[in-house]
Design brief:
The chain is mainly alpha-helical and 171 residues long. 61% of the residues lie in helices and 7% in strands. The strands form two sheets. A two-stranded antiparallel ribbon has the order 1-2. Helix 4 runs antiparallel to helix 5. The longest helix has 24 residues, at 111-134.
Amino acid sequence: MKLAKRGYAQFHGPTKLSRMDITEQENLPTKNLTERPESKSFGFWIAVIGGLVLLTQLIRVMVLSSNWSFFLNDKFAFSLNFPTALMYVLYITAMVFIVRYLWRHWQTLGTITKLGFVLILSGGVSNFGERMVFGHVVDYIFIANGVLNAADLFIMFGILSIFIDRPRRNL
């Protein structure tokens, strides 16, 4: 009955409200417009990382089983000739620093920045896993004088996303 009375007042002019109606209105929850909307949970983003890693590996299998040209890259990023042990240490160190940063600052990061870090971690985990299992990564996207794979693109787009969101937020 009270809801109908309030709705009637909105469209047909004021009605006489009892003291109870006014106190009920004061106690209604209000939405703070300055608060950030609730973001996706950390588990959601972990699932996205898993899905992207799976996607890169499915693409890898498709490339290897088709007539697509590819390059088996056993060197570090940009074909730098690093010792294998140092390459793994650099991969692990970078991923640990990123995860540690995210653990401490996750709630303060914007969605675009979170997406950027998720892309970077997805590409890093995919390339690291591929190197651990097969001893190389399969590169199949030929650009100018370089060859990339989907994981490399994830890393590049992740870095770009963080820089795009950076002017609006302090990292």
